[in-house]
Hints:
With about 550 residues, this protein is an alpha+beta fold. It is built from 15 helices and 24 strands.
Amino acid sequence: MTDGPVEIGDGVWWVGNRLADDTFQCHAYFIENGDESVLLDPGSPLTIEATLAKVEQIASLDSIKYLVCHHPDPDIAASLPYLSERLTRDDVVVVTEWRARALLKHYGHRFAYYLVEEHGWTIPLGAGRALQFQFTPYLHFPGAMVSYDTRTSTLFSSDLFGGFVPDSSVLVSHDLDYIIENATPFHQHYMPSTQLLVAGLTRIQRRWPIIRLIAPQHGHLIATEIVQAAFEGLKNLECGVFTLADADLDLKRLLRISEAKVRITEALLTIAEPATLVAAINAILAGTHEARDCALYVHLPGDGWTMWGREFKKPILRSPDPDWPMIDLPGTPAAVLSIHTPDNDHPDEDLMRMLHDMAPTMRPAVDGFISRVIGERDAALAHAAAMTDSLTGLGNRRALEARRPTGTYALISLDIDFFKYINDTYGHAAGDEVLRKVSAVLTRFIRDYDAAYRLGGDEFLIVLPDAGETPAVRISERIRATVKTLEFEHVPAKEQITLSIGVNAAVGRLGGEFEQELAFTDAAMYESKHAGRDRVSAYHRVVVPES
């Protein structure tokens, strides 16, 4: 996860934190809404400093009026006494349900309460925007609730859809299997019954049939394309304390191990592709054995150790952990099957012995896999090089042609003021340094699904899918202001670098050709230059009504 705030929707920001070596990651969210902004599930003393630091990169702390606590757990609300000191406004309120208020008051804060049941289960935020609430009893608190931003169709799901995540570097997940896999143990531990879970999820779907993004308090945010499938997957989970009860543990353990041996033997004999084999073994171990995970490590030429495991749909570079038991797969290059267990305990010796015995049958598939991966890797590298500007790492014109935007989007055209003078006066090393640092600023302020390009010289273009004029101008102003603060090794401090920027927003909706829209964007940029440079100008078209 990033160290800064992440805009996940129009005016909606992730401001959570990552605690080192903790799979129980907590998210806080901020809705930027002038002097009636909203901080959702602010967090605990462990995270609140970092959360407020992120908020201050977006807006003043004085803008916060509403502190939403979906339930009273300490990881959500224990920061309230701290916030009593940091937030100086007298009208800040804690937004919650009456059952939660009964516990929240024990944190010893000074804030008044905004009880949702007394206000129609909503907070009106103006300009047609509202934060709506839905009661989800016993999931996992008697007065638990979730909320929904009507402007962005974002569901703030509190503990629902939460999970224990081994890879907290990913904020938004598009992988349904991974979401459900990590949500399963979380819900089994924290939700009282499947019946209550299904009832709560059904209420949410009936209330808000359109959900663009699920933003839980724990785990990963859930992308649009898997939202509905995630609802159905969660409904199929068996939850409650009865799933944790386990009589005759020794007998049941022996039966699970026996079943694992049979199923893994079948997988080793029938599956010829290591990635699929790893997935099959993981599925078997998850259902039948105490082992948590297994992973395949192969020492690929030119890459070093590469790992395939349960958490990953593509290989990642990682060396085997020597603390985990390993099974050597004989042959060259080196390959091992690593078995991960709770608390690094060794798995059952009989199971390990059986895997050792079956290891030679895996080797032919590994060899074929290595050849295929190297071929695909080399082809991908060649393609990426052809689409990338070698100096800045941004996409080039060829990449833009290959990824022309569709639907509704905004364009931002940027030009470095007096760049020719900098290049001619201080040399190409100075010019290259300016281009690289400006490019780094662009990538810093755009979203994961936005794209930045260097079209040539000092000409840059940013494409913002599903963006209107307000966020496009806001991003442009942040880029412009940040570039002015840059320091350079090869350019004297007296030569402040500035940008002329043009914005052309929501252009796809009007059906214009891309080249035409690009020309309109450039026209707005040149308007900034003619007006004195170091500014942002927006292109406003005149729409002539049909006669």
